[in-house]
Amino acid sequence: MDSIIITGGTSGIGFECALQMARVATKHQIILPVRNLLAGNDVVEIIKNKTGHKNIKCLELDLASLKSIRHFSESFSKEKHNSVAILINNAGIQNIGGTIYTSDGFELTFGVNHLGPFALTQLLLPFVNNDGHILFTASDTHDPELNLPIAPPIYTSAEELAYPKESSEKQNIVGQRRYSTSKLCNILTAYELQNQVKGTDIRVNAYDPGMTPGTGLAKTYSPFMRFLWKNVLPVLTLFKRNVNTPKQAGKNLATLAFDEKFSKLKHSYFSDGKVIKSSIDSYNVYFQRELWNSSLKLTNIDIDKKHIAYNDNKQNTDDN
């Protein structure tokens, strides 16, 4: 029995994705990485009761801690069913308040949205099936050309994003930009990871859930904005393109991950039910490789040789 791992599976898009997976992936074990095991076990019971799927469990994981990520990987390696069919890196945060750091000293948004999933994916690669599927939940906020009401991303280097300097911009603008940039990093990582696993049938894709009001993403917003996010903006799902309820977005994510009609899809950005072009910066090979190599150094993760097709030409290019 292979395993499906879904981060952020206790609420919002991740919960709805896990619920749908439990309905269709009946021959797989489903694992939900959670910060709070008690709360996680409650969610597991809810999914079991709703779907009848019995092979669901949670394991402890805090994406803001490299120690916790390593511990999760070790715990998973001891599982009876420790082969990964699908890894869904869905968990994410948005902090528009003051700068907060992870336990490893990284800026929180970049740490949780990029470095955490990056490290988790690297450590789980030895367990990913040769035809496994790895997904990253990104966001259309990564593309400045869409002119969305959020500060657009600016990619400089992984080092500068991990250890940001003080900014003269307003706090909420800084927070928005850190979020949109972290979502760009998700796509850069997906594209570069696909290049790194060439020679296998592993597929890597990035997923845009669209605007999804009602999720927990607005926790650091003002009380008024939180009210709008939870109670008013969901109305947009009725008539505006690519605005989804958490249930719709979670089901779309599960479909992309598991449905046979997408079984050949790789190296793609999936939004609003179809493959579309991501931003210009997301295809920047220098950004992809700089982020990859710097993230390896920041997380101190050794490259697993089972799937990674690292070659000297890429490293030489990065050194120039």
Would you kindly provide a written description of the structure presented here, covering whatever features stand out?
- The radius of gyration is 18 Å and the shape is globular.
- The longest helix is centred in the middle third of the chain and has 26 residues, at 171-196.
- Helix 4 (108-124) links the parallel strand 4 and strand 5.
- It has an 8-stranded mixed β-sheet, sandwiched between helices.
- Helix 3 packs parallel to helix 4 (108-124), helix 4 packs parallel to helix 6 (171-196) and helix 6 packs across helix 9.
- It has 10 helices and 8 strands.
- The protein is 42% helix and 14% strand.
- The protein has helices spanning 12-24, 37-51, 66-77, 108-124, 158-162, 171-196, 223-232, 246-258, 285-299, 312-319; strands spanning 3-6, 29-34, 56-60, 84-89, 128-137, 203-208, 268-271, 274-276.
Short description:
This protein has 10 helices and 8 strands. The protein is α/β, with parallel strands linked by helices and 320 residues long.
Describe the SSE topology.
Blueprint: E1 3-6, H1 12-24, E2 29-34, H2 37-51, E3 56-60, H3 66-77, E4 84-89, H4 108-124, E5 128-137, H5 158-162, H6 171-196, E6 203-208, H7 223-232, H8 246-258, E7 268-271, E8 274-276, H9 285-299, H10 312-319
Parallel strand pairs: 1-2, 1-4, 2-3, 4-5, 5-6, 6-7
Antiparallel strand pairs: 7-8
Helix pairs in contact: 1-2, 1-8, 3-4, 4-6, 6-9
DSSP strand tally: 8
Biggest pleated-sheet summary: 8 strands, mixed
State the helical fraction: 40-55%
The sequence of SSEs as H and E is EHEHEHEHEHHEHHEEHH
Strand content: 5-15%
Average pLDDT taken over every residue: 88
